[in-house]
Amino acid sequence: MRSSLSTFSRLGKKVLALFVLIASPAWAHSYTAIVGATLIDVSQGGRGSADIADSVVLIDRDDVAAVGRRGRLRLPHQTRIILASGKFLVPGLIDGFGAIRDARFAAAYLHQGVTTVHVPLSPPGGRIDGEDKILRLARPSVLTSAPISGYATDGSVPPASAWAQHASSDRPLTDAQLVAEVDAAAAAGNHSIGIGPDVRPDQLATIARRARKHGLAIFAEPAFAPYDAAIEAGVGAFMRNDKYQLWLAGPAAWAEYRANPIGGGGRTAMRTICGGADGVDSAVDDFARQLGGTFLMPILVMEATADDVGGPNPWSLPAARFFRPADLDDPVDPVTGARPYLAQHPERAEAIRACARRKQAIDGRLHRAGAIYLAGSAAPSFGILPGSGLHVELRLLRDIGLSPREVLAAATGNYARLFLDRGIIAAGRRADLLLLDRDPRADVAALDRISLVMAGGWVIDRRALEQSCGLSREAGPRCSEVGKRNP
User: What's the whole-model pTM score?
Assistant: First the structure.
């Protein structure tokens, strides 16, 4: 079973929690059962409907032991009962693109019901979010993604100024080197591979085959490899709509992007997309049909926040109580709501907003044509708040046309195919659960009405998180221990 705890077991560590105040173990009793809630089905991309009214979920230590209906599932002796009649039970939320920089990041995620954070690691020399802390954090569960490039064994890519020479003159990694890179990523405890823009189609096929042997998911923002080749190779998800939508602009625009994907190579393609050129809509439908089982992670909240297009002032959101502007990248002004990116381009502000709306509309069409989505927040970029940023992303997915159940699946059940130990509430899965006061099948805003958070079998005291890590008082020593475990 792959979980964040597997990292510790490989390091030969036995893990126990430090602070019962902040996170108390469900397994202080032999078993814990949540009884009486309506368990929401998040399978089949949000098209499942096998909800269980008056359910029983039995938890044994870190995992779900059994799921059934009250009166039909016999509970073991000395089971601790959590009564939940009239409430709604869903899996803990998964942020597919986040960062952990310190204990307050961890606290904000947990407070907002995010029990798993998938962190794409940066190559050496780039900004690295929390790698020095990740192995010491057990709540929320942190899954890491190792970067792999087509030319460098450290996953790095050259700057834009050197890209033309890189593509024509540098020596690509061999199959043996790529296999070794994937093996090393798995041995280091990563849960996925991040495909760099300079990975060629043949290399991507090699990486994908080896990743499957280790049970590693694959996330990609390809450029050297065309999207149809990446789909054929079995990529799990394409990241960022400002990347994957470039593929829809046609061969000439794509070739220009491929020539310099980290510089200005995508400008023609983006102008084509944002200008509504003829043929784009039919390309959207074709791409959606080609995707098959490959997910899209648009990260709508990034442009919505940076461009002020459907994104609220982050400082109005619940997670704001954990942060100061200096904790985030390019933060929104807490008082005026001014967005730094727009402020730097005042003459283009309206065009930037119009382009963002066009990309939102394209994702809506992709959804209608059959694309299935994952949710990620890119926190803390552009001032996006850890925890609350994912809630904004879910509302934006609703706004482009996903049903409430599809929205919920984007942050839970859809990940179950990539990370096999979480994402759904079922026997053998991690005991990551949210108990809600309102029905999320009717309105995704119900995800703000959290009654209980359980992360890896631990009941999280959200009020204690605020008292220990919130800015209403100076964060004390207990905050530094949020999510920590004894060696």
Answer: 0.91
